[in-house]
Amino acid sequence: MPSGDNTNKKRLQxxxxxxxxxxxxxxxxxxxxxxxxxxxxxxxxxxxILVDVTRSLEKSxxxxxxxxxxxxxxxxxxxxxYTIYPIQWETQKPTAVDEGHPRSSSQPLTEDxxxxxxxxxxxxxxxxxxxxxxxxxxxxxxxxxxxxxxDKHFYQATGGSPGDPTKQPCMEMVIISDxxxxxxxxxxxxxxxxxxxxxxxxxELVKQIPSLPNLSRLHxxxxxxxxxxxxxxxxxxxxxxxxxxFWNAVFLRxxxxxxxxxxxxxxxxxPARFQQxxxxxxxxxxxx
Length: 288
Prior knowledge:
Blueprint: H1 3-30, E1 45-52, H2 59-75, E2 80-87, E3 98-100, H3 111-135, H4 144-157, E4 170-176, E5 182-183, E6 192-193, H5 199-208, E7 219-223, H6 240-252, E8 265-267
Parallel strand pairs: 1-2, 1-4, 4-7, 7-8
Antiparallel strand pairs: 2-3, 5-6
C-alpha cells in the first residue's frame, strides 16, 4: 500500500477519534444522566365505609352492597386503615361489619386473602340484613347520624391532631346506600322520612338541624346499589334527583362548597378515581 494511503488512513482514524471524543464530552456536559425520582412515602390512609343493611333495599340490592364494599377495598393501598359500619337504626353505637388496621409497611393482600375477606363481608352483611329487619323498628335508615359517627371516627383514627399540613393523611368516606333517610333520631329530634314527605318539606327540616359536623377534610363518595332483578321494579322510592338535592343541602352544612359536590359520585359504580386513590405523586426529578 502506498505511503500516502497510510497517511490518509491514519489521519481519518484520528479525525473519527476526535469526533467521538467531542460528542462524548458535549453529551456529558449538556445531557447529564437523569437521576431517578425521589421515592415519596405513601401518606397514611383512613377509609370508612358505611353500608346500608335496611329493608328499604331489596335482598339482591343488599348483596350488591356487600360486593361494592369489597370492590372498594380491593382498590385501596395495602396500608389502608379501614372500618365498615352498618347504616341502621343504631348508628351511635354500631358494631363494625369488618375492619383492618395494617402497618404502614404492610404487603398487598394475595388474591386468596382478598377472596377470604370478600366472603367474610358477604356473610356478615347478609346476617346484619336479617337481624336488622327482624329486630329493629320501621324507621331504621338513620344516615344523618352516621355523619357525627364519621367525624368522631376520623378524629380518633388520625390521633385528633392536624399535624404537618404537608403530610395530611388520606381520608375517604364511602356511603353505599339508597340514601333514603327514614329516621327520627337526629339532632333536630324530628322524624325525616324521605319516602313519605315532599322534598320541599325535607329541605326545610335540614335548615332546622341545629348543628352538623364539619367533614370538609374528607373525600366523600356515594354509591347507589342496584340489582337488575329488583331496582327497575321498585315502587314508592323518591327520585334520585330529589335525594341528591336533599343530601347536597346536608353536605353544604357540613363545610363543603358547591363545586365539591360534583365529585360525590352518585352512581351505582365504584368511582374511577379509586384506581389511583391515596397514591403519592412521584417527586420531581432533582436537577443537577
